[in-house]
Amino acid sequence: MQYKLLIVLTLVAILVPRWAEGKELSLSYKDPVKDSLSNTHVTYSATHLFALGSEVLFKELGSQNSSAVRLGEYLFFAYGTAFLSSFSHEWSHYRLANFYNLSPKIKINIFGGEVRHFFTPDINNSIRITTAGLNQQELNAGFVFEKIVLSGSVSYINGTSLMMNRFGTLAYSLVTVGGYDSTGSDIINYELLTQAKGFRVDRYEMLAFSLLSVLSSAVIWQNLSLGHDFVTDNKRQTPLLLLWDTVVPPLFQYYLTEYGDMITMILPVVRPTPIFLWAGLGLRQPFYRVGLRAYVIHNEKLSLIPSFYYNRVKNSNLTGYQLGFEAQFHLIPRKWSLFFITKYSENDIIDQLKIESGYYATVGGSLYF
């Protein structure tokens, strides 16, 4: 599936190179149905492909000269991005249920889809499956945020993608609090499962903290402002906000784990080379995770990116870590690059969301237009 997407986007870029400008395809060789990072890469690439199709369609309808047409384009793209985010969400449920041999089945609909699977008596496994979709959307948002920081600007494509992925838990909490009391609700299932573990994460608290994390992220507000400018002035990107010409305002996120819910922060420092500081704090039980991802070498030919994360869960005296390394070889600057990612982790809170503890490695490539 990934390589078909590569062929399609390459052909479109050849046929309409001017419209393809500013798009990116980034894919890992692993199966996105079975791998969280590949899921993120495919979702990111599919979003750019959808943006390309949307631009071609609405340009024919007169988007350059009509704010009404651009409003239609923006809403159309926002829906498509939300659908792709939801699709990524459901496939992550599928991945975890399949990992635990629960015979999952996925049903696609206009909202993305729905996954059904057999019951597992293990509470921790149930929590991982239940939260897999919402946490996948947070992982997607973190990936896009790094792309935004490295580019130095918020494009309507990446800005909307980040926003729709960040809205995952908030949207689920809103519809749940509003009366969506199905047993298929991730929010209700997580509420019940955490209660069974001895600490209860209430749906209203999930709504409050997910809303707080969204409203506290400056990049969300920048994208909303860009959406207005997109419709009124056909402006499709804006410079990223910098503090003291060095620090990017942090992205706040909200994860649901088997130890309770967690507020996290990614704080980028862009000079002299980009460093992404990461900190997360448990809200229900005393646990935390800290770390960083540093571009120690970052130029037109090569990027070398080591990373290290450490977490501790106080009540269970559990400690964990993740040690990683990524190399990006920019074979043709701003056109084509290859990447290699490897890491080793033990009891890492975020890796446990993806079931990738132990040794992990993948390779892939990025194509820029």
Low-confidence residue ranges: none
Category by helix and strand content: alpha+beta
Largest sheet report: 10 strands, antiparallel
- What is the CA-CA span between the terminal residues? 20 Å
Say how many strands there are. Answer: 14
The residue fraction in helices comes out at 40-55%
What portion of the residues fall into strands of 2 or more residues?
A: 25-35%
**Count of all domains:** 1
List the secondary-structure elements in sequence, H or E. HHEHHEEHEHHHHEEEEEEEEEHE
Q: Helix count, per DSSP? A: 10
Give an overview of the whole structure:
This protein has one domain (2-368). The two termini are 20 Å apart. With 369 residues, the protein is of the alpha+beta class. The strands form 3 sheets. Strands 1, 6, 7, 8, 9, 10, 11, 12, 13 and 14 form a 10-stranded antiparallel beta sheet that branches. It has a two-stranded antiparallel sheet with strand order 2-3. Helix content is 47%, strand content 27%. It has helices at 2-15, 17-20, 36-60, 67-99, 123-151, 156-177, 186-196, 203-215, 218-233, 349-354, and strands at residues 24-28, 105-107, 114-116, 153-155, 237-239, 251-257, 260-269, 275-282, 287-294, 297-298, 302-313, 318-332, 336-346, 358-368. A hairpin with a 3-residue loop joins strand 10 (297-298) and strand 11.
